[in-house]
Amino acid sequence: xxxxxxxxxxxxxxxxxxxxxxxxxxxxxxxxxxxxxxxxxxxxxxxxxxxxxxxxxxxxxxxxxxxxxxxxxxxxxxxxxxxxxxxxxxxxxxxxxxxxxxxxxxxxxxxxxxxxxxxxxxxxxxxxxxxxxxxxxxxxxxxxxxxxxxxxxxxxxxxxxxxxxxxxxxxxxxxxxxxxxxxxxxxxxxxxxxxxxxxxxxxxxxxxxxxxxxxxxxxxxxxxxxxxxxxxxxxxxxxxxxxxxxxxxxxxxxxxxxxxxxxxxxxxxxxxxxxxxxxxxxxxxxxxxxxxxxxxxxxxxxxxxxxxxxxxxxxxxxxxxxxxxxxxxxxxxxxxxxxxxxxxxxxxxxxxxxxxxxxxxxxxxxxxxxxxx
Length: 373
What we know:
Blueprint: H1 2-18, H2 20-41, E1 45-52, H3 55-64, E2 79-85, H4 88-101, E3 103-104, E4 110-111, E5 126-131, H5 140-144, E6 147-153, H6 154-165, H7 176-215, H8 226-235, H9 237-250, E7 253-255, H10 263-268, H11 274-283, H12 285-298, E8 303-305, H13 306-320, H14 325-336, H15 340-357
Parallel strand pairs: 2-6, 7-8
Antiparallel strand pairs: 1-2, 3-5, 4-5, 5-6
Helix pairs in contact: 1-3, 2-4, 6-7, 7-8, 12-13, 14-15
């Protein structure tokens, strides 16, 4: 009987060794499907990766669990993937999405977050055993193989890796004081995970409140930050009208891009509220249009972006308010990371552009924000 067991395990190892390329193919398919699923659903994740168990690793697994497997298809982690996400709530969202994209082996899947007793802390992760769906067009051989997908947060992942590297699970007779240290750290990580979920909820509530205030036109006194700026640029009809007029006046196309990088520059120029931002856009529009046309002509462009718009606003304010070279240099240093040569170059370019623009006789510019410039 023992001889039959050894032969069966040897046969499994041989079959796996001879067909390992199939598992590598499955691994690539699994990774691609998970990446596509995450992108489609907009899940907030850090990383997705997969691995195929080596023949030596399989041999060691079968030695430790001798007699458990009668067929290679009984082993569920020869092909495995891991999804690292930032929030605990995302773990459950991904688990639900898996049900729509794979066949779930409920019997062998396990939510390790539920296996700890009320007074225990430790490794918390969700393990799903899945297989490809035949209706998705995959050949039968690939669909027969089950894969393990682990879903964990960044902090859960850190805990598992540290625990593994320190050999905590495999050590025998670890002193009680050390076990308490592990549990204390695990408890702190669990609290931090929950706090991040709460923080995410608070940010979303803040976004919703900001959006409502902007929609209601009650935004003038809102502080200028990443959230308020994003909501203003993407939801405010007044800003949309401004862009429509600006594109008409400049005869250029407009493309939306992030403008967060200009928050420090705007604050340096004294713009700290949304109302102040809109006021500045109106006040400096004539100069901004001149700069925009100059820059796009120099670079042979037929469009401008949100980033260009804000950059031109800052330049217009520096020029119109006659900032000194020293002050302009300090402004340029905000984005040049103390690169003296780049600061000098950007400062020179601003003054050169200002000189060139003032070569145009002012009587050629029709008065008014949206004149035919």
